[in-house]
Amino acid sequence: MTATFGGPKIKAKGQVLNAEQQPVPGLYAAGNAIGGLFYWNYIVGSQLTAAVIFGRRAAQDAAARAKAKAGKKA
Q1: Reduced to 3 states, what is the DSSP secondary structure of residue 26?
Q2: 0.70 cut: is pTM over it?
């Protein structure tokens, strides 16, 4: 499998959306795992760009989320 033409819908930070279009807390997707990038054709190598961009944004959001949780415990 090189790419998906479906998959979970995400927000700009890589957060996976549920059926009500709300982010699922702590669930992220990037690269081939996300839907909505490809419709009629697949652009070779484009999943690498999606993985880098959405993976980085998801990691930043997850780190901020973890920091916020750690701050609440202190």
Answers
A1: strand
A2: no
- Domain with 46, as residue range(s), is 15-73
Residue 37, CB-side half-sphere exposure with 13 Å CA sphere: 27
- Identify residue 73 by its one-letter amino acid code: K
Domain count within the chain: 1
Query: Does the residue 40 lie in any domain?
Result: yes
Tell whether 53 is covered by a domain.
yes
Residue 39, pLDDT above cutoff 70? no
Q: How far is CA 72 from CA 3, 24, 26, 52, 55, in A?
A: 40, 20, 17, 30, 26
Helix (H) or strand (E) holding 64: helix 46-73
Could you tell me if residue 49 is inside a domain?
yes
Closest CA to 54 of 14, 15, 2, 24: 14
Could you tell me which residues come within 8 angstroms of residue 12 by beta carbon, excluding any fewer than 6 positions away?
57
